[in-house]
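so im writing up the methods section and need the Integral membrane protein record in one place, dumping it here so i stop losing it
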Amino acid sequence: MAVQEARQGGADPAAHEGGCTCGDCPHGAREGHRRAVAAFLVKRDEYATGRGLPAAVAHSASASRQWVSEELAQAAEAVAERGRAEGAAWLARLWQRTAAVVWAGVLVLLLVQALTAIGAGWTSARTAGLLSAVLVAGALTAASWFHRARGGALAPVIGEDNRLSTSRAVAGSWVLLVASAVLVLVGRLAAASDHRERDALIDGLELARGAGVVTVLAVVCGIAVLVRRVVGLRVQGQRLQKVRAHRPRAADLLTDDSGRGSFADIQYVAVNAVALAFAAVRLARRPDQLPDLPWGLAVIVLVSAGTYLAGKYAEGGRPVILSVVRAREAGDLDAPIRTGDDIEIRGTGFVPAGAQGADRLARMVVRVGPVNVHVPLVPVVGGFDNPADDLLTVPVPADVEPGRVDVQVVTAAGVETNRYTIDVTE
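--- predicted struct ---
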């Protein structure tokens, strides 16, 4: 639909109503990004079918390829700018949504307590639970306002790559649950008039009763800190490629950077969601003590955490050049590599996860001797034929002197591959 609208021209881009694209308002930023993407897709598919080429370059395959690549790179950068504006506007709106969701949860809790109190009567435990929810919601709302430019209450769980962090989200959920449980005990303790009831509530905080939930809390918080350290060290050591996203998405909790489902993340979220649900029910049933998470369930959470951490250690890898050969078209004679020839660089890991967009692909560079060659974008209908994750095609520039020359790829994440030596003849 977006592509068809771009072909038809759409509404006036200068209008400040539903078609605003200037980026001055959230709706305009979103609409502007959508239209920029649609226009780019139309341009890419037209160039892929050979349309839109000027007559000055149409006679030369290399000239037309270079011209198309430059045009697409400029258009892709415009799309990226629109995407960044849309992401900033989306984050600015998110704090209101998170605050609304938090207070909606408080209302749901009130309705549930009111319905379950029919016949059983209202108790001090219900009052303490409701006050605990109000205090937590108030704290989250205040945090949302102070961090309204960074996503509101979700700001602490947004990673440095502008994606939702699975480890931080899980740890934050456990922190909120334990904080709510302690506030419930504090409320009941403040309302208790009998010394035996106060002693029983204080005993509810004994480690023997909450050892399981305390252990799980310590492990998931430690995992959140450790994962950040591991990812940071692997990025600095060029063993992991990270590309910043335009904005966080809920799917980030279950997928890798490229948007594919990740087993390590999915099982970690699923197991902890089940354990959190169990702990919340135990808190509702026994509001006089910390949730007594059974050791069997706690061990399952610990195994899940270990699997998640192992997955973080195993993901990624440094890009590698395996071979470099002269590109040969149908009918060409076999020959050595000369200046002006195209070469195929074969390997793995050239396109980092999350860098499939044209603006990121246009940043890829191949060093051929002392010369930096930008990898040309070769469009096909629905995507790009070059560059690919395992194959790059670039020309050998005329400034390269004949002889033994090193070839090295620099990916969109700034990671360098190994050097591969080729022979360039006159």
